[in-house]
Amino acid sequence: IQTDVPVGSQVFSRFALGGDNLLSFYQRPSYPLRETLEDEINKFNPDLSKLPFSFYGAICHPSIWNLVQEKYPSVLAGITYTAPGFYGPQARVTGRTSLKVPEFLRHIASFSFRDLRVLNMEMETAGILGMAELLGHQAGSLSAVLANRRTGNFAENPKKEVDKLIETGLSIIHDWN
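RE: above sequence
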């Protein structure tokens, strides 16, 4: 969702913003970094408060983050927005509908935290990272940029990009253990 992130890039999610309410159903222990992220996104833009939910924050495991930073400089580090659906939650208008927050995509794209920007959106990362934290697991998230919503560019060969992503993910797992 950033104009300067080319199709074919790989994004590692240092943080995730959950718009899906998944973790609203669980008691979460105090974690100041996550709570600061949540506070900042939920007070970030008054237009976002028109939505019927609050964002929750999720953080990748620090050991995976450190490894990716050190050994995988070509992988972009950023924040992932996790949407609860494909249409409105990803700022898609279906033709006969309108969005409560017409500039939603632009607002999300302009958020930053700890010098990282929101680079991509999808529908799983915040839940995976958040549940891993709750259950005492170590998790990270790696995504392939197959389309750039802001520029209108799409991957010519999505399968090739996903294959490259799998290779990078397997390398990270190998180096991590």
